[in-house]
Design goal:
Helix content is 22%, strand content 24%. By secondary structure, it is of the alpha/beta class. The chain has one domain: Metallo-beta-lactamase, Chain A, CATH 3.60.15. It has a seven-stranded mixed β-sheet. Helix 5 runs parallel beside helix 7. The mean pLDDT is 97. The structure holds zinc ion (ZN).
């Protein structure tokens, strides 16, 4: 509902990690926001989809075109779960030759210029979904996208210095398989990164003030917790 009513922007996040530019989860409006923020799609080295749901993938084709100059200058990687390609593709056939496509599998690790990208575990969500750990000069950055809670998550992301975590609910609704705020707090408390960023808020979270929730978790755990806002820039 937050995306459909554009109560928050839904273009995903742009990572500038050492000299590598990655667009993660380009949902509806990604192309528009990238230009509004003065970012240059041709600077991208990769586009990554955590999963095929439309709030994470809607703009993937147009962003691939933008990264590759409409396909005239093929470059970059498109890193996606296999169900984004077959049998009901979100990656259109005609854009595929513009880019190097990599299918995510649990445990896949790759280098991109000076950084290492690893997909440590498959999440529990209605479609194939993967989070990621980036190893960069300043440490390790983890992203836990949409998932219901399961204990192995903590082990999979143990030791990360920075953690981005999608928290959609205040109370769990088993039908939609998302983390709630208490579960996010538990994960943060067990992993204990230097900095944690909450994002992907549903209506319940927006009504409960993401900033207040972040403060509560900070006070409870002693970890710096930030509630993401539209157009925010965060340094690692
Ligand atoms: Zn989803």
């Amino acid at each position: 509902m937050v995306v459909l009513n554009q109560m928050r922007k839904s273009g995903g996040f742009w990572l500038k990690l050492d000299n590598v530019n990655i667009l993660h989860d380009p949902g509806p409006g990604s192309l528009v926001m990238v230009h509004q923020l003065g970012l240059k799609p041709k600077d991208l080295d990769a586009i990554i989809l955590s999963h095929r749901h439309v709030d994470h993938s809607n703009d993937v084709n147009v962003m691939t075109e933008a990264m590759t100059g409409g396909g005239f200058t093929p470059k970059g990687r498109l890193i996606v779960p296999s169900d984004c390609l077959f049998p009901d593709p979100v990656i259109l056939q005609y854009v595929r030759p513009f880019v190097e496509i990599k299918e995510i599998k649990k445990g896949l690790e790759m280098t991109l210029k000076d950084i290492i990208i690893k997909f440590p575990i498959e999440n529990k969500h209605p479609v194939e979904t993967y989070g990621v750990i980036y190893t960069i000069k300043s440490g390790r950055l983890g992203y836990i996208p949409d998932t219901e809670y399961f204990p192995e998550l903590v082990q999979a992301y143990a030791g990360v210095d920075f953690l981005i975590i999608n928290v959609v609910r205040m109370k769990t609704d088993k039908r939609i398989r998302h983390l709630n705020m208490d579960e996010a707090a538990e994960i943060i408390n067990k992993i204990r990164p230097k900095k944690a960023i909450l994002t992907h808020f549903g209506l319940q979270v927006l009504k409960s003030s993401p900033e207040r929730q972040a403060k509560i978790i900070s006070e409870k755990t002693g970890v710096e917790v930030i509630a993401a806002q539209d157009e925010v820039t965060i340094n690692f």
